[in-house]
Amino acid sequence: MKGWMGKIKALMLMGFTALLLAGCGKENLTALVPKGYGADESMKLIILTTVIMGGVLLIVVILLAYVAIRFRRKKGQEDFIPKQVEGNHTLETIWTVIPVILVIIMAIPTTLVSFDLADASDKSDNINIDITGNQYWWHFNYQDEEIQTSQDLYIPVGEKVYLNMKSNDVIHSFWVPSISGKMDVNPENTNTMYIEAYEEGVYWGKCAELCGPSHSLMDFKVIVVSKEEYEKWVADMQNYDPEVEPESAVAQEGAELFEQNNCMGCHAIGSSPIEVGPNLTNFGNRTKIAGYLEPTKENLVDWLKDPETLKPGNLMTGKYPELNDDEAEKIAEYLLQMKVTDVTPESAGK
Known about the structure:
Strand order of the largest sheet: 3-2-1-5-8
Number of helices: 8
CATH topology of the largest domain: Immunoglobulin-like
Shape: elongated
CATH architecture of the largest domain: Sandwich
Radius of gyration: 27 Å
CATH superfamily of the largest domain: Cupredoxins -  blue copper proteins
C-alpha cells in the first residue's frame, strides 16, 4: 500500500506542477487570451478540439478502469484461462465510425475558419502592409501611406489590416499569438493574411519557423493604437525630414560617425526603400533593440560594438569598421534621440 501511495502522490505532484506551469506566460504573448479576430476564432477551435479529445480520454479511462477491475485475476484463479474470443463486428464498427465522425466535426469548422482568415476580397478597401522577413528582423512597408519602418508594426484598433508577406532569405513564420494565427513567410511567393485587434496595447510577435541560430531572438511588436493616434503616427512618419540635425552636440557627432562608417549603406532613415538592414526611422521609440534587448544606451553600445555575440548569425557583423567606446556611445546617442512622433508604445491603450 505504501508503494502505491507513494506513486499516487508523485503523480499528483507532477500534475499540480504541470497545471501551475501552464499558467505561466505573458498576457500579450499567448493564444489563450485572444485580443483579435484571428486569435478569437482560433481559441474557439482550441476549445472545440479540447472538449472532444477530453471526452474521448475520459471515456477511454473509464472503460479501461472498468475492464481492469471487472476482469482482474482473482485469488485462486492463478491457473485459470478465460474463454478466448476474437472479432466483434459491432464493436469494430463503432470504434471506427466514431473517430471518423469526431474528425469531421473538428475538420469542418477548422476549414471554414482557415478560408475566412485567408479571404482577401476587401483587401483594396483596407490598410495594406508589405512585410519582409530577414535573418533576424522584420521590415514593414505601408503601401498607401508610403511609410517604411522595421520591428514595430503600428496598426489602428478595430480595423482590418492586410499583411502581404515574403522572405528575403529562408522560410520564416509570422505569428502574433494574441491577435491572430501563424502564416509562413516564403522566399518565392507572397502569402497574405489579415489581422484585426480588439484592444489597444503592445502585442509580442514571434517567428514560428526555425530559421537559423538566432531564430528565438527574431521578435517584433505590434502596437495597436486608436484611429486618431494612428492617423497622427502616419502624418508624423510621412512628414519626417531625415536631414534635420539632432539637438545635442553629442548626437550631431553621432550622426556624422553614422555616415562616415557607411551605416547609411544598409540602414535607411525616412521613406527610402533600402531594406539591407532595418529601417531606423523613429528608432528612439522602439520597444526593443535588435528585437529582444531593453532599449537602453548601454545595450545599444554593446550591440554596435559586438552584434555577433548578442545575435549570432546576424548580417550586420563585420559590415562596418570596428568602433571604440566613444564612437559607439555617440552613435547610440544619435539613434536614441531619433523620435519622430509622440505616438509611442507607452501611449498605446492609455
